Amino acid sequence: MEKRKYQRVTFQADAVARGNGFELGGKVENLSMKGLFLKATGDLGDGPLRLTIHLSGCSSKLSIELVGKVVRKTDDGMAIEFLEMDLDSFIHLRNVVSYNSDDADAIMDEYYRSIAC
Asked: 9-115 falls under which CATH superfamily?
């Protein structure tokens, strides 16, 4: 049974996770308004981690900065749930997920649902 409340979109970008004195680079494989899957090998231990998703573009270097936690580990990487982020990162995330979705209206509904909490 599908437990996800937020649509995932395929999105690839470089990311760096930092936690417990360790730093781990990897590739974002998919993304939602509440989490992502990071293809990476290594372990950051338990507890919160800081994550930077590097957005590439022609004119600027943008990033999404957030705090998250690992909720699942596989041989290929880890699923990270977002716990907090600043407003600019939230808006960048909303735009990335919306632009990469087949159903932008559903993503916007998720966005409004997430800010109503």
From this structure: predicted glycosyltransferase like domains (2.40.10.220)
